[in-house]
Amino acid sequence: MHELSISQSIAKTVLEKASEQKAENILSVEIEIGELTFLNPEQVEFWLEEIFKKTPAKDAKIQIRKIHSQMKCQNCQWQGKINARDDPFYHIYFFTPHCPQCGSSALDIKKGRECLVRRISMTR
Prior knowledge:
Blueprint: H1 2-20, E1 25-34, H2 41-52, E2 61-67, E3 70-73, E4 79-80, H3 88-92, E5 107-111, E6 115-123
Parallel strand pairs: 1-2
Antiparallel strand pairs: 1-6, 3-4, 3-5
């Protein structure tokens, strides 16, 4: 259920930026979510729509782009994507990926852990 708290943080950021810009309406919000956050984009979108009701973002189009993982093995220098299953197990226990080439867990995560607001479109 961490989608609710993440959605609340995203909404706070969006609404604060809109207020700073003296926006009357928020037209769209573009978000990037890394697959290694194990956030469900549909749930994030649902919660944002609920939170945005009765705010300048009530009619905002929410666009979520999933960022695939990108890793590099410190041992054999393999680079690539680790397939992280959308399994409830990974929401409960710590996810420890292993290199598909040498089996090492010494991986540098280059992409896939981000959760950020990329763009907010608004009118004044």
